[in-house]
Structures are given as C-alpha cells and as structure tokens.
Amino acid sequence: MDRETFIRTLASEGFPEPVLVKREAGTMDEHTHPFEAKALILSGEIGISVNGAETVYRPGDVFHLPANTPHFERYGAEGVQYLAGRKG
C-alpha cells in the first residue's frame, strides 16, 4: 500500500493523523498497547509474534493489532520505520 492510500484509509476508519515510528535493530519483549494500532511499513522490517506465530512485514505492508493484544516485536538488521495510526 502507498502512503497516501494508507492515510486516507486510516481517516475513513476513524484513526487520527498517524505518527512516524523508528526502531533500531533488536527486539521488544512481550507487551500490549491500550489502543488499536494499524501501521504502514516505510523501510526495514518488523516481525510481530502473536500467540507464538511470527509475521514479518516489509515496505508497503500494513499490520493491524487490536488493543490489548499480547505480542513480541523483532526489528530487522536495518531497523524499521513505519507510520502508525492509533485509536482507542
């Protein structure tokens, strides 16, 4: 998905303006967010593990996490940069 389409989609789904997130290579232990998150990968890669299953997202991919979903995050060798919409 391209950036403009992603931003329009977020707005149509009631998300506020997205924020830019940058993470260095590495991992984040299991955690949750008190908000629903939808993000468009701009560069690098991120692996998100939910219930023991990892999905890897690369530029152009979109991930969606409902609020309060326990998950782990793994950032690729070059880290990751993404636009994140958060609501709730």
UniProtKB/TrEMBL annotation:
Organism for this UniProt entry: Paraburkholderia acidisoli
Transmembrane segments: none
Protein name (database record): Cupin domain-containing protein
Residues in the signal sequence: none
Superkingdom field: Bacteria
Pfam families: Cupin_2
InterPro entries, per the entry: Cupin_2, RmlC-like_jellyroll, RmlC_Cupin_sf
Residue ranges of every copy of the Cupin type-2 domain listed in the record: 27-71
SUPFAM superfamilies linked: RmlC-like cupins (SSF51182)
